[in-house]
Amino acid sequence: MHLEELPTPGSRFELQELIGVGTCAKIYAAFDKQKGNKVAVKVVDNIAENILEIESEYRVLTSIGGNPYIPEFHGTYLHSPKNAKRQLWFVMEFCEGVPVSELLCYLRKEEKMLTEEEIAALLKLFLLGLQTLHENEIIHRDVRASNFIISPEGDIKFIDFGSCALVKDTDGKTHSSL
């Protein structure tokens, strides 16, 4: 990825509420004025410090984004706000729902539990998502309940691909530092 070749978002996206904070980025719900739909925008402020995570996320989203277990990828933009450092924006599908970790906290607070059948169904979806990644030679390396969004319909999507490792690079060479 060549940062200087990335388009600017201009006024296409209207950032709305903050929906998540990660180790190197903030995630916002946003409105895509061009397409007329809601999207998620992951804003990375410290580009130089996070270049490895940026490249990892970019490779995953461009290779398998839009899969049933991965948010659809809409593009990467270089934003230069006035009087601030440049930002990298990953724009992707807005996933309705909550992280599985929030669901579990809510259930615990309400003194409720998932049934064995619900746990089995959730684990099956986790494993199908992992299988998709592994079939595409991607290792997530940060599998935890907060990195899965569960929709109101019970579907899940993996999020946060900054820690991923691609087993093979574009030349077909296997990475040794997994």
From TrEMBL:
GO CC entries: cell projection; cytoskeleton
Q: Which GO terms describe its molecular function?
A: actin binding; ATP binding; microfilament motor activity; protein serine/threonine kinase activity
Pfam families listed in its UniProt record: Pkinase
Principal location: other
> Which GO terms are recorded in the biological process aspect for this UniProt protein?
regulation of actin filament length
- Gene3D superfamilies per UniProt: Phosphorylase Kinase, domain 1, Transferase(Phosphotransferase) domain 1
Highest taxon above the source species: Eukaryota
> Where in this chain does the record put each Protein kinase domain?
13-178
Alphabetically list the UniProt keywords: Actin-binding, Cell projection, Cytoplasm, Cytoskeleton, Repeat
> Could you tell me where this protein is found in the cell?
Cell projection; Cytoplasm, Cytoskeleton
Q: Does the keyword Cell cycle apply?
A: no
| Protein name, as recorded | Myosin III
